[in-house]
Amino acid sequence: MPAYIYQVLHVIGIIMLFTGYGALLARSLAGSDSPSLRKLGSITSGIGLLLILVAGFAMISKLGHSFSAPWLIGKMLIWLILGAVIVLINRKPALAKGLWWSIIALGALAAVLVYIVRFQT
Length: 121
Prior knowledge:
Layout: H1 3-30, H2 35-63, H3 70-91, H4 96-120
Helix pairs in contact: 1-2, 1-4, 2-3, 3-4
C-alpha cells in the first residue's frame, strides 16, 4: 500500500482520539455520569489510538525512517502518555480542564516533532 494511505489512516486515528477524549472531557466538565457517552468516548479513543499506532509504524517502515530517531521516540512517548490519559479522565473528573489543555499541547508537540524536528535531523 502507498504511504499516503497510512498517512490518511493515521490522521483519522488522531481525529478519533481527540474526538473521543473531547467527549469524555465534556462529560466530566458537565458533571454528567452518562454510561453511554463514556462508552462511546472510550471506544472512539481506543480505536483512534490503535489506528495511530498501526498506521504510524506502517508509514515509518514504508518511508524508511529509523525507529531510533529522536523525533520518533518523542512521538512514541506522547502516544503512551495519551493512552494513559483516559485513566485520569475517567477517574479524576476534577482534572478535566487541565487535561483538556494538556491533550492539546501534547498534540501540538507531536506535530512539531514530525513537521519541524524530523526535517532538521
